[in-house]
Amino acid sequence: MDTGTGTNTGTGTGTGSETPQPGTAHTVTLSYAGGEERRGPVTMGQANMIRCILRDEPLHINNHDVWPVPAGTAPEQVLDALRTLVVRHEALRTTFPEPADGASRIQVVAAEGDFTVRVLDHEEFGTEPARYAETVARRARAGRFRLDRDFPLRITLLTLRGAPAFVSLSSSHAVTDGSALAVLREEWLGLLAGAELPPVEALTPLDLAAEEATPAGLRRSEASLRYWQRTIGTGPQEMFAEPRATRTDGQQPQLTLRSLRGARALAQVAKRTGSPSPTVLLTAWCTLVAHRAGQSTCVAAAPLSNRSRPGLARSVNTLSQDALLSLDVRGLSFDAVLRKAWGAALSAYRHSQFDSVRLWEAIEATTFERGSHFARDVVFNDVSVLTDARGPATGQDARDARDAELDLDWGPVQVLPTRLLCFAYRTAPLLHLGMWADPALFPREEAEAFLTGLVALLEAAAYEDVPLASLTQVTGVRPAGRDGDWRQVDGCWTSPLAVAGALSGALGGLPVHVGTAEDSAHAPGGDRAPAGLTAFIASGGAPLTPADAHTALMDVISGPGPSGLLAPARYVIVHDPPAAPGDSPAWLRQRILMEGNGRHRPTRDDH
Fold first, then answer.
1. 315 phi and psi angles, rounded to 5 deg
2. Which of 464, 277, 528 is closest to 382 using CA atoms?
3. Strand 407-415 to strand 251-259: parallel, antiparallel, or no bridges (unpaired)?
């Protein structure tokens, strides 16, 4: 699931200091025929992304990629290969008729049609042509795709004195995700090399939609909803709930790691433990994230994992539904966490197909009941299974690997709805990661230290197990500092003072004190106070119920408010505050007008 906006990234590392100017520009129109005309319902992933496309800014939701053209390739070969891909893959011939009542629920596959390629010819590219090609691709993301009529790829062919050098493209997230673009890139390169592509065996979007509608598919979706509700109802709501986790504008610079050392260490850990390299890398990432966040569980979205089934692994489609990983990182050592990781990942993968509308309804109900707001703080997208499959590094990959024992490179800024996003592009022959971290949490030095710490963890685990108690010493990464009244309640870090301030503001400035069950050991009448926070509110006689208070606070928690807010488990309403407003027992000695958990959702009939 993409929980609102997409997290789409390319592999480029910067915009460069110079912008080459094309000498000439023209547009080529290519016709295609030979496909099959089809029509049917959209898939769950398509439905999810169509809603995002209609709501979010194009820069946030469109994909992009850059395909370097092998030397000696003629322009006609590039165009013919593109045409072949369009005929080969139904997704590239798909549009979504626009209904009168909102998002499309139907997809239509054309048998024939045409598309355009913009050709920009240059006398010179400058010193960093790959960065320039990346810039062109990113710029193409800016326009909104018309789902009912637009060809889903915006393609620009960059040539140097007539010789093709790069294909820079942007794509509609309704038909492709990052993994689908990787499949297209691999097949396109194969066509340019004269290879004969094997028949398409992966599910087409229409085939997947039909499978999802079967009884087995519907049962799988229901199981996914239950898994998500359970995970969101028990895990930390924010991985990075901490004093300095202030809300930002979402602009995050790209930090790229290329490391031969990291690849060697990763391979050695896999050999020592008998675990697959992707599982080792995921475990190391989650362990270090949880260590930095001061959490005992790492909750992370893993978008690629819904391609774990053979029929979906190479599907040219948008499968943009998260697998929600919940990995318990408590244990004595790295190997102990690694032994739990495969089971946790497999459970997440199995529960990554769902009706996104029903999922959001379930999330809203679960978080209202818990008094929280689920934040998609951490995303880990491992596409190395596709890129590593290409075999030994060639071309740009070989240039990247040269002398890259451990190289860090800062690139362009991207607006993202996450706090920490990582793409694993390759694990061999070098470890190639792209990371986007919220500067409020990870200033540049700390972001660099995090990635170098990840390599250090892999190197330490290469030949022997690593005690988790030594993570700070081994990696140099320190846990988040939480002083003052910060504490863990219901598995979440929260600040009672911040909750009191937010609740008071939501109620027009009424006096509020928030304490814990430990602060007020017993409720009136001798009943034990419920676990979690208790909010004491002095209403001054104004009509106020616990449900009113909870609903008002949830409006703040679910909005762009401060970090670390968790609604109380109990609301106690009195007339006037005590003389000692910071003393929970003193509030309990006041005459209580009303109390309750506030989880009753107000309706029109309640007023």
1. -75, 130
2. 277
3. antiparallel
- DSSP annotation of 469: G
| CA dist 493 → 158, 490, 496, 533, 563 (Å) | 50, 8, 10, 12, 9
Best CA proximity match to 365, nearest among 168, 573, 226, 548: 226
SS3 11: coil
Signed CA dihedral, 370, 375, 376, 377: sign only: negative
Q: Is the pTM of this model over 0.85?
A: no
Residue closest to 421 by CA, chosen among 253, 587, 536: 253
What crossing angle do the helices spanning 334-350 and 277-293 adopt, rounded to 10°?
110
State how beta strands 512-516 and 24-32 pair.
Answer: unpaired
For residue 121, give both structure tokens: 């010819």
pLDDT tens, residue by residue, 14-29: 334 467 888 899 999 9
Q: Is residue 426 helix, strand or coil? A: strand
CA nearest 188: which of 90, 88, 109, 112?
88
Residues in contact with 346: Cβ distance below 8 Å, sequence separation at least 6, in sequence order: none
| CB within 8 Å of 442: residues ≥ 6 apart | 420, 450
In this structure, what token pair is assigned to residue 411? 């690139």
Looking up tokens 């926070």 gives 533
Structure tokens at 82: 């593109």
> In the chain, which residues have pLDDT < 70?
1-18, 99-102, 245-250, 304-306, 308, 320, 386-403, 517-530, 601-607
Contacts of 67 (CB under 8 A, 6+ apart): 166, 167, 169, 185, 188, 189
Cβ(325)–Cβ(301) below 8 Å? yes
**Type of residue found at 455:** V
